[in-house]
Amino acid sequence: MKKYGMLAFLLFAAAASAFAYYSEDRTGAGIGYNYPEVRLHTDRYGDISNIIWSGSDEEHIIFLAEKSGAGAGALSTLYMMDVNTGEVKELYSFETHDILKGFMQHSRSNDFSLYTASPGGINEIRDIRIESNYEVTDHFYSLDGFDNANSAFIADKIYFTKADDNLLCMEDVLYRGFGFFYNNSVQKGQSRYLKRIDKVLLKDWGAELYYTRSGKDGIGIYKLIEEDFKIKEEPVAANVVSAKPDFWGRQITGLYDRGRMYGVYWTADFLNNRQVSFTDGLVKEIPKNNDLFGQIPDVQVAANLIFYTRYDEDGRGTIFTGKKNGLKTAVVKDEPIVGPLRVSRQGKKILYFTYEDEEVRVKVYDTDSEKTEDITGAFVP
Questions:
Q1: Structure pTM?
Q2: Quick one: how many helices (H) and strands (E) in the chain?
Q3: Residues sharing a CB contact under 8 Å with residue 176, sequence separation 6 or more, in sequence order
Q4: Could you give the CA distance from residue 80 to residue 101 in angstroms, rounded to a whole number?
Q5: How far apart are CA 314 and CA 336, in angstroms?
Q6: Contact yes or no for 158/175 (Cβ under 8 A)
Q7: In whole angstroms, what is the distance from residue 180 CA to residue 226 CA?
Q8: Does residue 173 surpass a pLDDT of 80?
Q9: 70-106, pLDDT tens digit by residue?
Q10: How far apart are CA 112 and CA 323, in angstroms?
């Protein structure tokens, strides 16, 4: 290894573990898809399991790194990095969840808060901003059965599924009052609903909970809705390849299977009690080529723009962006792109990864200046 010798790329094969894709999309468990996920190992921070953009500006990223604890298991730490200067500040440390190691979700009600997972519950980290001198506050939501959680989403309640049963759990700890899913309470504030679910995707602003389920015919998106005080399930989309919430957890995007090609969907089409129609547009001609590590293309939505990767037969990638029904423009062209994209809240900056000379590099593309900066050096001593 050369200049970035302490930065290594770790790949997790789908067959290695049922929980191999904990920090990203696990909708394809058992289907055979290799989802875009990068884990970086550094001597300085440990294993970096996830990176997201700050919810309050376009200049900072937040990353989650894990180190082994002294007799108490692994410890995860949140850091904030200024992508312009490379300055890194430590924010908060907590015990690592065995399955949801890379889980981070922005709060939908506060630009300066986000959620992470620990054994037994959810951490809410607040006041993540420069003005507070990075002096964050925190609150822990204790959740019965959360040790085995394999997907989670935080909205008006905390919704999660577990690896060892078919129960959808809903913990009413964030807000009190009437909600949907009136089931027998198993503890104060918690309800459970028997339904086989692969991954909770999001809860919309109404009373609909979206999730994925895989079967012999592939992956589908479904929703649970409350109607006349009864709970019912409705199919939303079939032939789905990947599915994930957008930056704020308000919409879902991903790939669907078109036979010889992938297509891109964006669920603004079906969050108003409509089923998604894959014939309405977006992108329909993405070749079924993968990156250099066999991972499928990634898709992100931010600021009413769509971003996605497209690979040629040699595994070299191009990043495209554009409005939903408008022309898509190539902004990063013909690079050895690997893994996921991370797009800032206003869609101004794209963080992505490349694999060059047997090294993974972390780069940021600025859509205004149309320039790319390599920030790999900020992750190593």
A1: 0.85
A2: 0, 31
A3: none
A4: 18
A5: 9
A6: no
A7: 6
A8: no
A9: 445 689 999 999 999 999 999 999 999 999 999 999 9
A10: 27
Query: Do 191 and 170 meet the contact criterion of CB atoms below 8 Å apart?
Result: yes
Structure tokens at 211: 């999730």
For all residues of the chain together, what is the average pLDDT? 81
Integer Cα distance of 184 and 290 in angstroms: 46
Angle 226-229-230 from CA coordinates, rounded to 5°? 65
CA 147 to chain centre: 20
Domain spans of the chain, in order of start: 8-379
Return the H-helix or E-strand segment holding 355: strand 349-356
The type of residue at 186 is V
CA 61 – CA 344 distance, rounded (Å): 9
List, in order, residues 6 or more apart from 362 with CB less than 8 Å away: 40, 51, 351, 352, 353, 374, 375, 376, 379
Distances (CA, A) of 330 to 173, 244, 293, 361: 44, 22, 22, 20
What six digits make up the tokens of 58? 């376009």
Taking the C-alpha atoms of residue 20 and residue 100, their distance in angstroms, rounded to an integer, is 10
> Class assignment of domain 8-379?
mainly beta
- 3-state DSSP call for residue 148? helix
Q: How high is the pLDDT of residue 176?
A: 37
Least confident of 275-289, 302-316, 339-353: 275-289
The answer to whether the CB of 115 falls within 8 A of the CB of 139 is no
N residues, the chain: 381
Question: What tokens does 377 get?
Answer: 């050096």
Interatomic CA distance for residues 108 and 191, integer angstroms: 22
Query: Of 113-117, 182-186, 233-237, which one has max mean pLDDT?
Result: 113-117
